[in-house]
TrEMBL record, chain B:
Species, as recorded: Lysinibacillus macroides
Highest taxon, organism lineage: Bacteria
Ranges where the Histidine kinase/HSP90-like ATPase domain occurs: 34-133
InterPro entries in the cross-refs: HATPase_C_sf, HATPase_dom
The organism's taxonomic lineage, starting at the top: Bacteria, Bacillati, Bacillota, Bacilli, Bacillales
Keyword match Kinase: yes
Keyword list, A-Z: Kinase, Serine/threonine-protein kinase, Transferase
GO molecular function: protein serine/threonine kinase activity
UniProt protein name: Serine/threonine protein kinase
Length: 339, 133
């Protein structure tokens, strides 16, 4: 912070003296209002408290020259005291500047994360795919990744980082790159979870955990195989029986232990069946515990099963948003597959 | 013309002596009351650090008064433990008193320049200047 030049300081002193002298004579509210505006200027010019005392002292010395003998030491004492307030004031100012820099960086980081973790929803002739992910705050702690091979295989990873903000976003980038190195192994859900578990366990802070539901649809055999690492179960709507079955699979969260094993299960998908995968932002109603989230989700899907997968995702979001009073406290992610 | 004088910092009262010396020199060079107070406060912080962290050391005040240059140079030296992470110490809000603007970043702002040299186990030298404009 550059000190104000001597000339500028003299100018301020002259202005201050005039405002003070006017006040001493008239003592009106208008005088004080003018003083307030002047103070605003002082602050804008970064004049520190000890300088203000000094300006005041000099003004008094000119207005009441004969009183200065007694008052001088008291003013000098006050200047001494105010130097410390000045230090605190300047620190505050430089912290504010730092904060503005951080905010700028945060903004850039957010847009990088958005670009980095953008999910491309594939279009296949054999299965209708819908996906919607809405972050509660600036950075999304949920992530969806698709793999496919022609129209024959479709795999999907639905992930949720336990934790929020920047650390969660960084961790998610690792999950993404872990998934991308899988190449041809993407058809085996338990293997995928084991690999990603090792990536996270090695690379990320101990306090960082990730839940993942991983499913692979073989459209030739109509087989959906899946595994889960501490994630919300998916829902399978069996169209023929008009029934929902929870696709539960036990498995530890990713990143807890290095050599965790995961098991996978299989289920046959018939025509018009619907698989719904989601994060806990969809199922958890904080403060509304009496509501049964499963019932709400299943009835939305059953009542609207003729909509496209994407339309179903959007409708589900609107319904749940309504229940939360349009203020979701968690990241919301849903993926729907329709045979 | 340049003149040097110094104060050994051994007891807490030597901090007062260092302040007094600094104020006298600043005044003699022609600094106004406010800058005298700033220079003195900076000296006080440096001397207090010596007293607290190195036990003993020295504050040297140099008054430079030539045609082209008028400044006060404060040099604090000690053979104490040294400062581990100078960069961190110069960061805002790191000092133990935290958030009141004191400590070395505060000294830097009171003065016009601040240079810290420190070797672990050998000691610390801090040089601060203030120019008369
Ligand atoms: N002369 C020195 N020798 C060794 N260590 C020092 C010395 N001066 C400072 N330090 C180290 O640097 C740290 C920061 O010093 P600084 O004066 O900025 O803050 P502080 O003394 O901790 O708190 P404050 O001065 O605000 O009361 C100190 O805590 C101390 O560890
Ligand atoms: Mg200190």
């Amino acid at each position: 912070m550059a000190a104000l030049g001597r000339e500028k300081m003299k100018q301020l002193e002259a202005q201050y003296k005039k405002i003070l002298a006017d006040y001493i004579v008239n003592q009106t509210e208008k005088n004080l209002y003018i003083a307030q505006n002047f103070t605003r200027q002082l602050i804008q010019k970064n004049i520190s408290p000890e300088d203000v005392i000094s300006i005041h002292k000099n003004a008094i010395a000119e207005i009441f020259p004969d009183r200065m003998n007694e008052a001088q030491p008291a003013y000098d004492f006050l200047i001494e005291v105010m130097v410390h307030y000045g230090m605190a004031h300047r620190e505050h100012q430089s912290l504010l500047q730092k904060q503005a820099e951080y905010e700028m960086e945060m903004k850039i980081a957010t847009s990088i994360q958005k670009a980095l973790l953008k999910t491309h929803i594939p279009k296949l002739s054999t299965v209708d795919i819908g996906m919607l992910s809405v972050p509660a705050r600036k950075m999304n702690g949920d992530y969806v990744h698709f793999f496919y091979h022609r129209d024959d295989y479709l795999s999907v990873a639905v992930t949720d980082v336990v934790g929020k903000g920047v650390p969660a976003a960084l961790c998610m980038s690792m999950v993404k790159y872990g998934l991308e190195t899988l190449e041809y192994a993407y058809k085996e859900p338990s293997y995928v979870l084991e690999v990603i578990n090792r990536v996270i366990e090695k690379g990320v802070d101990d306090s960082m955990f990730v839940s993942m539901f991983y499913g692979c649809l073989d459209t030739q055999r109509n087989m959906f195989s899946y595994a889960s690492a501490g994630h919300e179960p998916a829902l399978h709507y069996n169209a023929k029986q008009d029934q929902f079955v929870a696709l539960e699979a036990k498995g530890l969260l990713l990143g807890v232990l290095p050599n965790t094993k995961y098991t996978y299960q299989e289920v046959i998908l018939e025509d018009n069946d619907i698989i719904t995968m989601m994060t806990d932002g969809v199922t958890e109603f904080r403060g509304n515990d009496h509501l049964n989230s499963r019932q709400i989700i299943t009835s939305v899907i059953r009542d609207n099963k003729y909509l496209s997968a994407q339309q179903l995702c959007q409708l589900l979001y609107r319904e749940i948003e309504k229940i939360h009073g349009f203020d979701l406290s968690d990241d919301f992610t849903v993926v729907i597959l329709k045979k | 013309m340049a003149s040097k004088s110094s104060v050994e910092i051994i007891t807490e009262w030597d901090i007062v002596a260092a302040r007094q010396l600094g104020r006298n020199e600043a005044k003699a060079l022609g600094f106004g009351t406010v800058d005298q107070a700033r220079i003195t406060t900076a000296i006080s912080e440096l001397a207090r650090n010596i007293y607290l962290y190195a036990n003993i050391g020295r504050i040297e005040i140099e008054r430079v008064d030539t045609e082209t240059e008028k400044k006060i140079v404060v040099t604090a030296t000690d053979q104490g433990p040294g400062i581990h992470d100078i960069r961190k110490v110069m960061e805002e809000g790191y000092s133990t008193s935290g958030g009141v603007g004191a400590g070395l970043p505060g000294v830097k702002r009171l003065m016009d320049s601040l240079e810290v040299q420190s070797v672990i186990g050998e000691g610390t030298t801090i040089r601060a200047e203030k120019w008369l404009r």
